[in-house]
Automatic annotation (TrEMBL):
InterPro entries: Universal_stress_UspA (IPR006015), UspA (IPR006016). The lineage of its organism: Bacteria, Pseudomonadati, Bacteroidota, Sphingobacteriia, Sphingobacteriales. CDD domains: USP-like. Belongs to the universal stress protein A family. This is Universal stress protein. Pfam families: Usp.
Amino acid sequence: MKTIAVLTDFSARAEHAAKYALHLAKKVKANILLYNTFLVPSDTPLAAQVAWPMVDYNEVKSDAEKTLKALVKKLEGELKEDHFPGTFLPAISYQCDEGSIANNITGLEENGDISLLVLATHGSDEISAFMFGNNCRQVIGAANTPVLIVPEKTPLSNIEKIAFATDITYTDVEYVKSLSKLAEKFGAEITITNVNPDNPLDSEHNAAVRLFMDDIGHDVDYQKITFKSVPGSNVKKGLEWLIENIKFDMLVMVHRKSTMFELLFRPSVTKKIAGRVDIPLLVYPYPAVSIPLI
């Protein structure tokens, strides 16, 4: 059984991300794992320089587990209230470990059932941390599993349109194939978007797009896939135009060291996304031995 791991710090934003994960889990028939990491003073960089009081590791872990149990109970209660007989009911479990979230990702992923990592964004009052905050970036950098970043105002509604931003790289066809499995559960349309400074497309780029879409048509068994050329004198302006002008319920990208992905985390682009505080961002890992199916 597939499992969606929700990385939680027990904040209201993280709880909303857990509810969104449950919303997905019911559709894709996956269970939920609530995952928390905790630090003791010896884990901090200044620990050796400060006279910290003795902290009982077991006590800290026990407190985290109690909070996780309470959250599981709350979510299970809400889940059962909305449950219809005959539909899938996700099981909710929990786990906590010592250390930072990013440093524990590899160990967490050793559970081969985990198909998606979910975490919340920082609050909109912390714009410098929104989307490109340390936790999000470190988790994306460490993960070999798709990561879904959920803003606190994302509605728990049906996903109708998904934007997949690509630089027309052939390996992205496999990611679209994976994404189509999620889209199919919601009956959602996937719009392949590419930023190109020449609009209309020049002949060379147009040929590359046709080849890419032909590969998708041949390799991806899903009909609701369209292409949209995004105007912009450069990738940065193109991403801003996409965010401001195209209505979609989820933005999807591949984490490779490309201009497009790095620009997404620049403050100017991030502020545009902050203006659309309901857009979840799904990030696929690259390279990957195999493309995980959500």
